[in-house]
Amino acid sequence: MLRALASLxxxxxxxxxxxxxxxxxxxxxxxxxxxxxxxxxxxxGKSLGVEIxxxxxxxxxxxxxxxxxxxxxxxxxxxxxxxxxxxxxTVNGKKLRIFTYxxxxxxxxxxxxxxxxxxxxxxxxxxxxxxxxxxxxxxxxFSGGGYRNPYxxxxxYSGQTTTYNPAASSAAxxxxxxxxxxxxxxxxxxxxxxxxxxxxxxLRTTTLQHKGQTVSGVVYIKFPPxxxxxxxxxxxxxxxxxxxxxxxxxxx
Length: 252
Prior knowledge:
Blueprint (H helix, E strand, L loop, with lengths): L1 H9 L8 E2 L1 E2 L9 E3 L2 E7 L3 E6 L5 E2 L4 E10 L5 E3 L4 E5 L2 E3 L1 E2 L1 H30 L3 E9 L12 E9 L2 H36 L4 E3 L5 E9 L9 E9 L2 E9 L1
Antiparallel strand pairs: 1-6, 2-17, 3-4, 4-5, 5-7, 7-15, 8-14, 9-10, 9-16, 11-15, 12-13, 16-17
Helix pairs in contact: 1-2, 2-3
């Protein structure tokens, strides 16, 4: 039971997946600029300027989101706040979720907790098996004659012996628990590292107080549906300081 539950938890992400790459529609491509291989496109309103960059990697539906790079600039005279709350995305009229930093960090903590639980369940199952008595089965035949069977009797024999070695079981359990502890520590370290990366990279709400001030970050968007007519266009809209700027992104 423990082993089955652990397997279910560990295999939860092994479902079939689709892939998508992001690109600008043909009418926008001539106006893009490149920085280290990443294509960027910018638009400006009266107060809000936005530039987006599209990663060149393929995104897998095994992961819950795709990412775009965003820089917002105050090009007016009035301060305003800018963050994920100012961004929306749609595909074929269907609204996609924009993840906040807090949601992303919570997701990392939850994923790490599930992995630690699966590791603990596997360790408990292995430790239980290590502490079970060992049964040895034996069988054979014998025939008459010889020093050990002087009366010439022939026949067969079979039997079983159940043994328990406390020292060996204790050593095996200790090794299992030590390995599980190391794995759980690695899971926690990976979780902390991922959250630290999110904290430094994810777009977070910032007040753009004066003209020319910018904020940059990665925006995480729920993986889009890939059905429907082509070309599949994801419209990413930025609304702040009275301006609304929409960027079409083609899903390939």
